[in-house]
Amino acid sequence: MRNGTLRDHIYGSGDDPLPWKQRLEICIVLFGVLCARKPIDRQRLNENECHLAYWARQSILDGTLCSIIDPYLMGQIATECFFIFVDIAYSCTCREGNSRPETGEVELMLERALELQEKADSCRCVPLFLNTNLE
């Protein structure tokens, strides 16, 4: 990545944060790009928050995912794109490997999410996800 690594641009190292569309295009670690957090952060005091995948999945179930999303992204993500992305990330982090989607399916769904985001960006006719309550 030009001007540093993905880590440099999403984990608060002082570099300019990546906009949502750019994160969606390069999608490396799904919950990592959404929340701008390391997959494992042993410095967190709450043990449930140390493992991002577990924390994000639990936040989805509790309806509090918005509380851990990178604040920089609020108001940038098209609603439909957001829900597709979260669904993919949730599916990819199932404990049972045979319950996870295949790579090709993930790729197709990410492409669909990107299409929806591009449509929203081009016409601003699609509502952006701002809600802090997922229910």
UniProtKB/TrEMBL annotation:
Record protein name field: Serine-threonine/tyrosine-protein kinase catalytic domain-containing protein
PANTHER family the record matches: OS07G0166700 PROTEIN, RECEPTOR-LIKE PROTEIN KINASE FERONIA
GO cellular component, one term: plasma membrane
Signal peptide positions on this chain: none
GO molecular function: transmembrane receptor protein tyrosine kinase activity
InterPro entries: ANXUR1/2-like
Lineage of producing organism: Eukaryota, Viridiplantae, Streptophyta, Embryophyta, Tracheophyta
Highest taxon of source: Eukaryota
